[in-house]
Amino acid sequence: MNPSDVDLSTTYLGLTLRSPLVASPSPLTGDVDSARRLAAAGVGALVLPSLFEEEIVAEELSLTAALEAGAGVNPEATNYFPPVEGATLADRYLANLERIKSAVDVPVIASLNATSVGAWSRYAELVVRAGADAVELNVYRVAANPQFAAADIETADLELISDVCAKAKVPVAVKLSPYYSSMAHFVHQVIRAGASGLVLFNRFYQPDIDLETMDVECRLELSTRVELGLPLRWIAMLRPQIPDSVSLAATSGVHAGKDAAKALAVGANAVMMTSELLRLGPERVAGVETELRSWLAEHEYDSAAQLRGSVSRVTAEAGEAFERANYMATLRSWVGVGAGPRR
Questions:
Q1: Would you say the C-alpha torsion 239, 241, 244, 248 has a positive or negative sign?
Q2: By the 8 A CB rule, do 44 and 18 touch?
């Protein structure tokens, strides 16, 4: 089979994508020129960098303080407010979304990073008005407060998800961390709350310590292919459990065409890429697409859809027994220095 004849199209969040390769949030997707390069290289969709709740709230508090600064200065100046220079962070985000949407011919997905319900979620409506084809809700939370039980955190997250899904009026994909106590149960609750898709998983960036200054250092460490194992495992287990209409996206550790093929095989509708594109540039998408097409053609798959879910269908019946058997097999697979022959 000629690799060029392989159909890579996929459906993600109800959107038809020309390829399952999606550029996930990074500086590349937030810049008009690099967004054009990603689209030209063949990416299926773009997910913009996140609009963070903390930044919005901090800006609003600063604005409120500025407005209140002039109150009561002069009885005759009841309508006086200090001038506010420049557009707000949200204004700039929405304007950039509009620019990127008009510059590319692929779906553009806005990203919102939030932890609480409230007036902030109105931005779910604003990004849609600005042209977003879908919304990715990044529920990023480090559960370090001993006052909150797991059930309290899950309830708060589900309330937020329900609120955003109701206000967005476009499909919403929820990007989760892998740390929920009962992932499969929580995923079903997320779907009932209105999510059209799941992005697995959020990659927490771990701080480091500078031993000379004793300062906390925040450095971006790009992913490695080893990290793909976690989303592969969970997508394989979840795909048979949830409706086909609910999309699944794999993120973290996708660096080559074979990585994308693995994600499709376990049931992913889309394959997110960040680190490989930051390392090698937007044009790397074309290389990964070529590798994926070649692998599919070599193994006689006519399309990405034909491969999708083939592994998850095999593992579905075994369920937990399959997971435990693989856990034991993995532990016994290691042969170290000086180890004798396995019996």
A1: negative
A2: yes
Read off the pLDDT of each residue in 176-198 and give the average, rounded to a whole number: 96
Integer angstrom CA distances of residue 294 from 143, 239, 257, 275, 301: 43, 25, 9, 22, 10
Average pLDDT on 14-29 reads 97
Residues 169 and 194: beta-carbon distance below 8 Å: no
Per-residue pLDDT tens for 280-289? Answer: 999 999 999 9
Run of H or E residues at 206? none
Q: Which residue has the higher pLDDT, 260 or 59?
A: 260
Span of 228-242, 256-270, 320-334 with lowest mean pLDDT: 320-334
**Alpha carbon distance 198, 272 (integer Å):** 12
- pTM (two decimals): 0.84
d(CA 106, CA 25): 15
Distance CA 260, CA 228 (A): 10
256: tokens are 């080559």
End-to-end distance of the chain based on CA atoms, in angstroms? Answer: 43
User: Given this model, what pLDDT does residue 278 score?
Assistant: 95
Give helix 53-68 / helix 89-103 axis angle, nearest 10°: 130
DSSP letter (8 states) at residue 253: S
Task: Tell me how far apart the alpha carbons of residues 325 and 323 are, in angstroms, rounded to a whole number.
Answer: 5
Which residue, among 242, 263, 244, has the nearest Cα to 252 in the 3D structure? 263
Q: Which two tokens stand for residue 151?
A: 């059930």
Contact of 175 with 137, CB cutoff 8 Å: yes
Q: CB within 8 A of 97, min separation 6: which ones?
A: 48, 108, 110, 127, 130, 131, 132
Q: What 3-state DSSP class applies to 272?
A: strand
Q: Which domains does the chain have, with CATH numbers?
A: 3-331 (3.20.20.70)
**pLDDT for 341:** 55
